[in-house]
Amino acid sequence: MPDNPPPAQSARSVPSAPVILGDEPGSFPYSVLAERHPAIIRQVRESFPYGPEQHEALDALLASCTKGVVEPLPADAHDLDRWSAWGMDAYTGRSWFDVPWLWSESHFYRRLLDAVGYFGPGPWQGIDPFRPSKLAELDSRETDEELAALDELTGRPVAEQATALLHGSLWGNRADLGFRLSDAEAEDRAAVPGLVADDTDTLWTLLGGAGAAAGTLCLIADNAGRELIPDLLLIAHLLAHGRIGRAVLQVKPYPYYVSDATTADVVDALRRLTRAPGEAAAYGHRLWAAMADGRLTVRAHPFSCAPLPYADMPDDLRAELATADLTIVKGDLNYRRLVGDRRWPPTTPFAEVTAHFPGPVAALRTLKSEVITGLDADTEATLVAAEGRRWRTSGTHALIQVSSSPG
Ligand SMILES: O=P(O)(O)OC[C@@]1(O)O[C@H](CO)[C@@H](O)[C@@H]1O
């Protein structure tokens, strides 16, 4: 692992707001560590007929992450050097609640996969503990309905299709299985259609406005299933209408944050599309063909599962993203990593906190954690007056923010 700077404070970060920890009882980060992680362990136990070894390892993880400290990785761990570069040595021996929240959450998934034998060797190597819930979602009535809506959409003017598919991708971010674990009513709460920040016009300008050469879009994916499918539909539309010439889909190299998309999930989503009735299959076949001729590629960079902000991305990823005409960063966690997981005043300019990014960048996110930047003062005041702090974490609000000139 040649290329990861130390985690504590990169030279490129903007150190002007405190990093979020999970140490405040009653706060959202605390509840994720104290309640969501144990619930995830329970769900994983129930999903597979694991043997005693795995149950014992899950017991040990539960004790460590709720009442214990961050333990060192085994000396023969395949990713020892990587985690060492990502802050392991500095955080070993400290309570999971006292280190940066982003770090302890991310490390939890690394440990969970270890506990169930995902990293092998052995018969459970590569078995995604979240696959049953991901597949259930892919097979759901809601997915059928969303795909059926494409039949009607296809007859509409192209601009209308583009807007609908962009919003499909944006609001698809509500389909987050980890979030639902700690907030069962989340999906039933009505979404607030007015975006808290809306740079859609700039986004379309960057996505091959009239006369522009079709460039490369990088999409840093978030959840599989009902978020990944609309992401893929948007990519298919942009390719088909010449707004981009090529797309790179960045997914996770291993299962993460319950429902984050891996390469296996991309394959499942494409198979789901190609086997669907109606227009959905046509989208699926176009995407399949784009994979075959290289207009759509999938990447699973190790840094996608790093416990660090994107300001600390390694040089090879930085160079790769610098070649994209636009990078779309999907979802809440990626937003936290993009702007830095810090207590920013909400009016902190988005362009300022993303100045580290190597090229034009857009965030498409529903709001599910405390971090927020780029609001105008009136919008913030209206949200606070109506909801206190609830708008930050309820998943009912969304944003499209673009910075066209970083890097
Ligand atoms: O990134 P996503 O899928 O939009 O959301 C991830 C999430 O559910 O998990 C994190 C807390 O565990 C938060 O960032 C957010 O609430």
Description of the molecule:
The protein has 17 helices and 7 strands. Helices cover 44% and strands 9% of the residues. Mean pLDDT is 93; it is low at 1-13. The radius of gyration is 20 Å and the shape is globular. Helix 11 (228-240) links the parallel strand 2 and strand 3. It has helices spanning 28-47, 52-67, 80-85, 88-91, 101-115, 131-138, 141-153, 158-171, 177-182, 200-206, 228-240, 263-274, 279-293, 315-322, 332-339, 350-353, 377-387, and strands at residues 197-198, 215-220, 244-250, 296-299, 326-330, 361-366, 398-403. The longest helix has 20 residues, at 28-47.
Q: Can you describe this structure in just a few lines?
A:
With 407 residues, this protein is α/β, with parallel strands linked by helices.
Helix proportion of residues, in percent? 40-55%
Instruction: Specify the biggest β-sheet.
Output: 7 strands, mixed
**Strand-pairing-aware structural class:** alpha/beta
How many domains make up the coordinates?
2
Total beta strands = 7
Radius of gyration, in angstroms, nearest whole number: 20 Å
- Tell me which ligands are bound: 1-O-phosphono-beta-D-fructofuranose
Distance between the termini: 24 Å
- Tell me the name of the CATH class of the largest domain: Alpha Beta
Mean pLDDT: 93
What is the CATH T-level topology of the largest domain? Rossmann fold
Low-confidence runs: 1-13
The oligomerization state is: single chain
What share of residues are in beta strands?
5-15%
Count of DSSP-assigned helices: 17
Tell me which CATH architecture of the largest domain applies here.
Answer: 3-Layer(aba) Sandwich
